[in-house]
Structures are given as C-alpha cells and as structure tokens.
Amino acid sequence: MNRQSALHDTVLDPREGLRREMDLLQSVVSGEQPAGFVIWRCRRAIVVPRSLTHKPGFERACEALGQQDWPVIVRETGGDLTPQAPGLLNVALAFRQRRVDGAIRDSYLRLCDPLIDCLRSLGIEAYCASVEGAFCDGDYNLVVDGRKLAGTAQRWRKMAPATGAAQDEFAVLAHAVILVDEDLATLWRMGNAFYRHCGLDAHIDDSLHVQLAELLPGSGDSLLERTQDLFAGCLQAWQTQQ
C-alpha cells in the first residue's frame, strides 16, 4: 500500500500533516501494512514536542507567536522546536523494528540512508552528525560540509497483540524535515522568539544551516516538486524491500 501523500501545489495545515504521520504509524501498529511513507509540506508554524508544553512560559510564547501568525503546534515525536513553512519537506517512514541493542541507531539509518542516496544522486554528499547550535540538534541530522540540511526524530509504539508480533517488536515512525527553499532567517528568528518567551537559554544559529536551494543554485521554482519526486522514488524503492 502506497502511503505517499500528494505534495504538488498542496500546502497542509501542520496538524493535518502530523495526523497523516500518526495514521501511517497506526497502520503499522495494527498490522495493516508492514511499512510505508508520507511526504508533505505545510503552512508556517512552530512545531514543538510535548516536553516543551511544560515550560513556565509556554502559554505566553503561544500567544505572542500566534499574534504574528505563527501558531505553535504540539507533535508526538521527540526532539526539539522545529519551525515549519511551505519551503520545507517533511518525510516520514513507518516500519517494524525489534527493540535490541543498536535499534535506535538502526531506525534512524533506515530513514537517513535512502535520503543520503537521493542527495548523492544530486551531487550532494550528506552525512549524519550533530551540529550544536542548529535547530532540533541530534546525532542523526543530515549535514553537508558541517551545516545542517535536515533534522530527524522518532516515535515508537508497541505492536498490536493481534498482529502476533514478538514482545520486543515495535512500530517506529522516523521523521525528517528537510530545508529546501525557504526564508531560513525568518524561521530561526521565530524559533528564537519562542525560546525567549519561554525563558529558555536555547538559541538557533542561522549560520549553521544550509538548504537545497543554496546547494543547487539555478534550480528554479520547480525545486520543491523535483526533490519531492526524487525522494518519493527513493522511498518507494525502499518500501518494496521491506
């Protein structure tokens, strides 16, 4: 079953994109399918993990950013604050994974490896690494020449008993947000405003990021569509191997 979402000319409410990801994850939990993927983009928002909702200034931050037409949306995956906007691509895979030594790393690589292969076909050499000071930093950022191109996060759920899955087998949603063609300075400015209103010391450094529009100069207005098609093709090939 192909769970690829239509992207071309489609900009979702961020809640709808996140709902599609959770629906995909649930389809693996229930045994409806062994694996799948979605690709989507959305209107601008500040998307945060549930852990940030407990900060003393959270409601104040939501009100201040909402007044500037930057709603704050809560997601179910981990990580940190992630600004969203139409010039970013969200890619999510869902699959079954045993909870064994190295499972977290393996799950991230099941997402990152096909994306790295896609980027290589464009002449871009990406790798996984932490970039301290970048948005939603983690060990499995996609990085090009020391600058962050994409951030990643995961969500694990126990398989439904009716599937007959082993006790140590889970459904995993692995998510990446890829910087393609957007006003990044505004994204980081709004992200930092959220931190400031929450009274947090965290700060996103604009200079630590790169997007595909910079790596592929002269790509034109079709860059989002072409890269979405490329990622979808790579992930479709990945899905047939599951």
From TrEMBL:
Residues covered by the BPL/LPL catalytic domain: 31-231
UniProt keywords, alphabetically: Ligase
Residues forming coiled coils: none
GO MF terms held by the record: ligase activity
Keyword Ligase: yes
Claim: Transmembrane helix is one of the keywords in the record: no
InterPro entries: aa-tRNA-synth_II/BPL/LPL, BPL_LPL_catalytic, Octanoyltrans_LipM/LipL
PANTHER family recorded: OCTANOYL-[GCVH]:PROTEIN N-OCTANOYLTRANSFERASE, OCTANOYLTRANSFERASE LIPM-RELATED
Name of the featured protein: Biotin/lipoate A/B protein ligase family protein
Species of origin: Marinobacterium aestuariivivens
